[in-house]
Specification:
Structural class: alpha+beta
Number of helices: 15
Number of strands: 22
Helix content: 10-25%
């Protein structure tokens, strides 16, 4: 593990893509501001994740428990977010919500982080020396409510955005009883056409400039004189003080959209600030480029799910409801979508599921530790410490597996008998002479080490027949037919003095007895035969091959082009060449002429027709196969959409092209026309489509 802490030093992305926090601007900003810190690759870069949850397995908020987790970003992507490498630094007990008082509980952790920034002397077992270790907290990761508790800025009400601050654009929806934040067009260029599309958005044009974004130093200047007052005042019930409690007036009725506790000056301390965050006690915090990150539970689940659910009119997930219709009418937009009657029987809703990230999943792990409902904190602490001790002690047992080191499930282990990859299951069986000949011919024609001998035979054939010099197709046919016997004859006649051993064994030919496997692992992918699949689909393969093609039936000129082939694995065989085995995939291929097509950027294949086109060319090397998955277009269709999946650990492979695994290229919004009418954007392919609309608010 000590060696892995310096992984980031030599694994920066070279193509400009972000695969790890080391590629982020925040990391580079720390290197530029503190070069002495960056010069020691063993110095730690940390991230803090914090969230509250109910440890009893229900969604009640009566009991809230807050674990504080630190993550080390020095490690590789497969390790830095693993459960074993997340440090549970604090257990803040319940049952009440912490709110802004969370800083009181974070103080011991902040003191330790301040000490780590100064430096601590530690021993490095890997390099066998002692050095001064320093650590920096790069950012926090939390949901939106915890974001407000950590930053000290109120994330409720009309000015809920910490980035925009008092310049936040918001609008109160009278019927929806919530705030809608529709000022996103302010971030567009001043001459962008979307700024002037009033009817497309909230009925107004946006002429205001984008808000001023405060840096960490500027935020600190705003709140540096703030006097924190910890603790919550006990609320008095009506009548306790002899007075009737006055009904609170809504904030949206007090001020207009541009005023909030002193106008729109972002450099002035307003009532939006509830405290001075304890993170400013860290000497480097105000100089960081990014302080807080929002996890994907809100961004991906709440917003994207609501957006897609509304656009697709998904039952239980759409924001289409009577109140949104009424708000549309009040705003004076989408007149064709206003409610025309009081029939609300068609509006129903359900509670959707939640989406968790790595930090959220670790919270679920901690929740599973609770076995005694009367002492949830003790259960979590005891189980976590037991796992930490087990991990520590495992390093002192010579034959014990390393706890916390993630083992790659699809790792290619070396096999002395198999040239590449490893197979599982299966049994030996005899192969028919015809199929054995086809498999052996494919090995001879596609093994790179045999290139010199293939070229040698082609030169001999051209000398014997001058017609073959101009006719490449005829040359390939004769070469394919004679190469096996010609190579075997060279070995028998003694012309193989300079041949490697692998070429000699290939010339001798394979045994008739082959091993048939049910699954095979190679290049980080696990393949299954079609017959062996149950709950998973791992039999889809894709391969690119060079092929001579004609532009049309009348064209006599042949051109070498790259052609894509799609199929499914019928059988995985290990061809036995006495001294080693060659893995081959026996596949059923889709007919490339009429069973492969491209529609709307997606590749579709028909796997039920045209299987006999490749009866003489059924095999490929296991190393040539790329894994694909097939999603059926509809229940009655024979066409399947091709989906490519990257192998496990692809984010650690800098040479992998991620674009290959995008099923459809993203749409360039700059090509979107700005003169579209609203009527042209309405869907008319389903019932009640003219009554389908919503106002989406955060």
């Amino acid at each position: 593990m000590a060696e892995q802490l310096t992984w980031h030093y030599n694994h920066r992305s070279q193509d400009g893509k972000m695969r790890h926090p080391v590629d982020y601007l925040v990391w580079k900003n720390i290197d530029n501001k503190w070069p002495n810190f960056a010069s020691e690759p063993r110095n730690l870069r940390l991230g803090l994740s914090l969230d509250g949850f109910n440890p009893f397995g229900d969604f009640s908020s009566r009991y809230s428990y807050w674990p504080v987790i630190l993550m080390t970003y020095n490690l590789p992507p497969s390790l830095c977010m693993s459960k074993e490498n997340m440090m549970l630094t604090l257990l803040i007990p319940g049952p009440k919500q912490l709110g802004n008082d969370i800083d009181v509980y974070l103080q011991p952790l902040i003191e330790d982080l301040k000490e780590l920034w100064v430096r601590v002397s530690v021993y490095d077992e890997w390099r066998d020396n002692t050095f001064s270790l320093k650590a920096v907290l790069m950012w926090t990761i939390n949901d939106f409510p915890a974001y407000g508790n950590l930053s000290g800025y109120s994330t409720k009400g009309r000015k809920a955005c910490l980035v925009c601050g008092v310049q936040t654009c918001s609008q109160w929806l009278e019927n929806g009883k919530k705030h809608a934040y529709m000022g996103d067009r302010r971030w567009l260029p001043e001459d962008d056409p979307f700024r002037f599309k009033a009817s497309w958005f909230d009925g107004t044009e946006k002429h205001r400039a984008k808000p001023i974004q405060l840096t960490g130093s500027q935020v600190f200047q705003v709140v540096k004189d703030f006097v924190n007052d910890w603790g919550k005042e006990k609320k008095q019930k009506d009548g306790e003080d002899g007075k009737r409690k006055r009904k609170r007036q809504r904030a949206e009725d007090k001020t207009n959209d541009l005023e909030d506790d002193g106008g729109v000056n972002p450099f002035k301390l307003t009532k939006r600030w509830k405290k001075r965050s304890i993170f400013f006690d860290l000497p480097y915090w105000e100089a960081l480029l990014l302080h807080h990150n929002l996890d994907m539970m809100h961004t991906e689940k709440n917003i994207c799910e609501s957006l897609l659910g509304t656009l697709l009119n998904m039952k239980g997930k759409t924001k289409h409801n009577p109140n949104s219709r009424k708000d549309l009418k009040k705003m004076g937009i989408r007149k064709n979508l206003h409610l025309k009657n009081d029939d609300l029987s068609s509006f129903k809703g359900t509670t959707p599921a939640y989406v968790f990230l790595k930090g959220e999943r670790f919270m679920k792990t901690l929740k599973d530790y609770v076995k005694n409902r009367s002492n949830p904190e003790e259960c979590i602490a005891e189980k976590y410490l037991a796992e930490e001790l087990t991990k520590f002690c495992s390093g002192y047992f010579t034959q014990a597996a390393d706890v916390g080191v993630q083992h790659k499930r699809n790792e290619d282990l070396e096999d002395d008998n198999v040239l590449e990859g490893r197979g599982f299951g299966g049994k030996s069986r005899p192969m028919t002479p015809t199929m054995l000949q086809i498999a052996h011919r494919y090995v001879l024609m596609n093994t790179i080490i045999l290139d010199p001998w293939r070229k040698m035979l082609k030169d001999e054939l051209k000398l014997l027949d001058s017609r073959l010099t101009k006719n490449e197709s005829l040359l390939d046919k004769k070469h394919m037919k004679k190469f096996s016997c010609w190579l075997s004859e060279m070995v028998r006649t003694g012309d193989s003095a300079d041949m490697p051993n692998i070429v000699r064994w290939l010339a001798c030919g394979p045994r008739r007895e082959v091993k048939s496997c049910s699954s095979f692992i190679i290049n980080g992918n696990r393949f299954h035969t079609k017959a062996a699949e149950k709950d998973t689909q791992n039999s889809g393969v894709f391969v690119e091959r060079d092929m001579y093609c004609r532009a049309s039936a009348k064209d006599t000129a042949l051109r070498l082009e790259m052609v894509d082939y799609y199929g499914v694995i019928r059988e995985i065989i290990l061809l036995d060449y006495h001294n080693f085995k060659v893995p081959l995939f026996h596949c059923d291929w889709a007919n490339i002429s009429n069973c492969v097509k491209v529609e709307d950027g997606f590749t579709l294949v028909n796997l039920n027709q045209g299987k006999h086109q490749f009866e003489r060319d059924l095999f490929i090397f296991a190393s040539q196969a790329k894994q694909v998955f097939y999603s059926r277009e509809s229940k009655t269709s024979n066409w399947y959409v091709v989906l490519r999946a990257p192998p496990r650990g692809f984010y650690e492979n800098e040479n992998l092209n991620e674009v290959e695994y995008i099923p459809c290229a993203p749409f360039d919004v700059s090509q979107l026309g700005h003169n579209l009418d609203d009527d042209n954007c309405l869907r008319r392919d389903s019932e009640d489509v003219n009554n389908n609309a919503s106002v989406i608010s955060a």
